Amino acid sequence: MELHILLLFMIFAAIVAIEVKDLLSSVVGVGAVGFALCLAFLVLKAPDLAITQLVVEILCLIILIRATIKKDLPLVIAGRWVFNTIATVGFIAVFLFFAYVALKELPSFGNPTMRVVKMYLQEGLGKTGATNLVTSVILDFRAYDTLGEATVLFASVIGIMAVLRGKGRKKIEEREDDR
Amino acid sequence: MIDNPNTGMSLIVKTITRLTVGLILLFGIYIVLHGHLSPGGGFAGGVIIALSFIHLMLAFGKEAVASKISTRLASNLESIGALMFLGIALMGFFGGSFFLNILNKGLPFNLFSAGTIPLSNIAISLKVGIGLLAIFLALVILENVKKEK
Amino acid sequence: MTLYFLCLVLFCVGLYGVLRKRNLVKIIIGLGIIEYSMNLFFVLLGYRFHGRAPIDAQGQDILNMVDPLPQALVLTSIVIGLAVTALLISIAIKIYEKYGTFDITKIKRLKG
Amino acid sequence: MNITSIIPLFVIIPLFSAFFISLIGKFVKRGIVGGISAAACFLLLILSLCGLAALRSAAGGVLVYKVGGWVPPFGICMVLDGLSAFMLVTVNLIAFFVCIYSLSYMEKYTDKPKFFTLFFLMLTGMNGLIATGDLFNLYVFLEIASIASYALVAFGTEAEELEASFKYAIMGSIASSFIFIGIAFLYSYTSTLNMADMAGILSAKPDTWVISFVTVLFLMGFGLKAALVPFHAWLPDAHPAAPASISAMLSGVLIKALGVYAMIRILFNVIGMTSAYLTTLMFLGALSMLVAVILALSQWDLKRLLAYHSISQIGYVILGIGLGTPLGILGGLFHLFNHSVFKSLLFLNSGAIDYSADTRDLKEMSGLKEKMPVTAATNLVASMSIAGIPPFNGFFSKLIIIFACIQKGHMGYALAAVIGSILTLASFMKVQKYAFLGELKEKYKDIKEVPFFMKFAMVGLAVICIVGGLLLLPPLKFFLSDAVNVLLEGRNYAHIVLEAASK
Known about the structure:
C: mainly alpha; D: mainly alpha
């Protein structure tokens, strides 16, 4: 029952975050959605995710606030966007209808078919020695994913430093042709 | 921690930060080391470690941390962390397969127990922590450059 | 079943925000909401009634554990979301530096 | 360390060189960074060729590598079969030439080590995506390649490039979120993430709404990554803004590996192809073929024109594969290989013009032939083969696609293919006339030919354009026919992989 309340709160906070005028209060709205998500993870018995989501959420907020301090806001709302709204709302309606139809065939909420995962639960402790089975899945059964994961973060750091560096192109005269 | 009053936040924030930064860092290291026993792990612990440095930088102003770690040193440390993690993966080659957990598993429930999992946790936390610190330093340095222009 | 549907409604709120809004930061916020709803949807799929967190306690033999696989994958997806959001924010800051505004309609140097 | 242990090397080598270059980038002289990256690219090319050779001797035509020693449904397995060997050779061949080219092209940009780090990260993403046998792993490597390409599009930090990269990043993230939702649905329905295991379960289960909903999600997600027409809005902005060697990689291999390969692997081998999906693919292919080539006629910016042509040529590939007949798939895959070669060559030529004459506008250039003979010659070869003039490789693959359309009775699509080819020829005659023929403007009197590395890469690709037609002859035919057989196998890909993995 509390999941329903949390989800309704998240949807309400998301709508506020998107529709509100001031940038800083929309950043706070996203923060609210993130923290409600962290609570939802706790209710769904996922402590690992709650810690990571909480901490990543704080970092995201700091960077977002860094980007939105003292920045201007569009005052005039042009009406040219009517076609865009109809297309988006129509696409969302179709998407939700087919999603509703498809969701009925999935196993119902609360009893997942845990075919492959049974082996993780029974022999996880024996095979990997880690008591926290989520960590054993991350770092032993599917460690290759985590290697990709670390590379994603590495690519993002190098990409940010490449984008934020001062001068992108050298002027013609200072370009020396080696070999 | 040399404290010139005009940079960073008010005195109250500075004194509280001086008390809590150590605890946050310790908590982050705890999360990393006990990754395979209790919830948390390389990622969460690494981000907490990065947040403790960012917390320091927000409270005491940019020079406090920026003088110690430059973005280039941070990105080099990060590549070292990444190479460590790849090394642990390559170590598995000796045991026959790419990511094989070849160290002995030890007794469950005590600290040195899950073979290479604690080592990978430490390598990931080193990488994630310093990488996010490098992102924050790059964003902050950009601010100063804009001011001089 | 309604929880899955509410989660996809949250996904559509984020999608609406990304496709409809004209301010760069609002688009990034819409994308953040899409990331959150994706992660929540995957963990909801793995929940089990009266399940326990997938951590073995000393001495107790816990039988009904929640599915750990979606939790491991969502941990990866949260950090991917952070990486993409951080990259987008730094591009938005540089665009603000070059164009002086966050409004898409004024950043229309490219056509097509 | 038996033969299958070469498969993880496709990910380890680019990953290791990316980390290593970013570590030593600042301390060491510029030449060493170039040397390491050229050596790593060459090693990858050799590895993909001997992967192809190892595959011919493998039992059942499949090599399966169990990462971490876990048996497939429990751990992640890396699969090398006909289709992924074919894609690996294409990707690493183009990456090798682009790497040589950018040794001297990147002098125009600052901070060369960062460029090569991001280049190798994109290569890791593509190689990892092609060689993986696990659905969520495919999503992670898709993200690595995408994030690296977002940063590379914005590498020269000018105003247009930042805006193009922002639009590309937003569209790419929406596509990834559709793909992630599709994977979540599939995991809940089949409770496994291994592609082979999932294919087995899906063939047992009846065809329900979940499967068609997930297929539409994947079509939207991978269609957006492959820039099919309804989702192509980002490509004409992103490719011209990127540095030339990166736009060669983007439209040469990235939209193929991330978009086309991932879509056909999942649709053919995991979800199973029905005639409804085939007709949608054919319709999307024909639509993007015609719409993009008409839009390209009115372009004056050289790289924008080439970007529109990438969309239309991807339409050819999707039309070919969408036919579903062995001849159609052969034509589609052969055109995929040819298009990677001549499209990256065209972008490298536009980069050469940009490098020495520093302009991209066709109106300003004219008569560059005298000063840049090599670039003019390679551009002529590439324009001929994209337009489908007989001796070159583009002609053979377009011919096969048109024959396959006729053989299956779709006269409308065959006609559309012919019209598209004629319009392509018209617009490339325009490029040839404005850029290279005519008299040289005095503004460009003093421009000189491009350095050696750029010439070497362009001439190499031009030779492959000329020689490409031989791939259809019997000795080299296994290269394509193995890939076609993998697609025709459809869902007993599961049986083949699991049986090979259990050994």
